[in-house]
Amino acid sequence: MMALFLLLVLVAVVLGIIGVAAHGLGYLLAIGIVIFAADLIFFGARLTRRVRRRPVR
Fold it and tell me: What residue intervals traverse the membrane (predicted)?
């Protein structure tokens, strides 16, 4: 799962760079930001599920 997270972050960064550098492709920057935000939310949800521990007896 960590590989998927890193791959999506890399894709978001590349789309953002292309969107900023290329004239008229600002929508790629927006797509990159959306992918990055969705990736962070997904990773955060998985992380909070793992943090829960059983109560000590």
Answer: 26-47
Q: Give which of 51, 50, 43, 38 is closest to 2, Cα–Cα.
A: 43
Q: Are 12 and 32 in contact (CB under 8 A)?
A: yes
CA–CA distance, 55 with 57 (Å, rounded to integer): 6
Q: Judge contact between 20 and 29, C-beta under 8 A.
A: yes
Rounded-to-integer distance, Cα 43 and Cα 17, Å? 23
For 5-32, how does the pLDDT look when each residue is reduced to its tens digit (9 = 90+)? 888 889 988 988 888 888 888 888 888 8
Q: What is the pLDDT of residue 29?
A: 85
| In the chain, domain spans | 1-50
